[in-house]
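Feature request, filed as a ticket because there's no other form

It would be nice if the structure record came with a short human-readable summary line next to the tokens. Right now we just get the raw output. Example of a typical job, pasted below so the devs can see what we mean:
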Amino acid sequence: MPSKRLSVVVTRRLPESVETRMKELFDVELREDDKPMTKQELVEAMKRADVLVPTITDVIDGGMLGQAGERLKLIASYGAGVDHIDVQTARQRGILVSNTPDVLTDDTADMAIALIIGLKRRLVEGVRMVQDGQWAGWAPTGMLGHRVAGKRLGILGMGRIGQAVAKRAKAFGMQIHYHNRRRLHRDTEAALEATYWESLDQMISRVDILSINCPHTPATFHLLNARRLKLMKPTAVIVNTSRGEVVDEAALTRALRAGDIAGAALDVYEQGQMVNPRLADLPNVILLPHMGSATEEGRIEMGEKVIINIKTFEDGHRPPDQVVPSML
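Raw output as currently delivered:
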């Protein structure tokens, strides 16, 4: 008789190839539609599953974990970030948590560079002008933007994605500056030709472009607040492909509308999918629907990591991407 397969509940629709492979390996419950589960549906799923596969939009707090069934032993999150899961409480209840790191680095870094160029060269404004029938033809002073070559790029958070942004920016001729919890090894710093700033305040007052690439933690919540926005040059722009909570969005909106900074490109928002309507009508703002990592290749690789984590756990070993509180 074959051994009993793990019961796995998936909270959202995943790429077809990933769902099919899960069906081959596990007793998997897939979604018929792509609507997020409600809080109660998540609790019920945790009661009947050995393994839950949530996404970054599924908030799993301590109270919900307290209602989880005894059989739940692994939360194999489909995503790199884990700030939506109370990892400490999960650990106390004997529930392992895993994620999918090192998959979306290049995709997110590509998007950050695209947004930098899009802001500096006013791409979205140009698209709207043509689509709205407002373009009267080429003019020597029409739609002037700025070169990125020679500009100072400040990177807030020099982890894997931050370094990938730096490598790309260097190829475009930008000068790399960064602020990080820990200074990079001098060889890495030299290869990137990056200048380290221990003081975030000092760095942001000097850069032309600020790319936010740090995770959301209690220490980084509203790290870019009203006071720091006042330190930036009025010609500077901000790009955020990391976490919306790092930026005080209300303060950013005020700074943009007052002309204290020149522009912003956001792929993430402080209130999830709720975008401040006062941002939407600004011509110097690019707003994207959290698509920095949205490539078919990346999403499939994320699914493959989830499967490896579950299968390794099923085989009695520690999932290779297990998250523990000390990592946060």
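Something like this underneath would help us a lot:
The mean pLDDT is 95.
The chain is about 35% helix and 15% strand.
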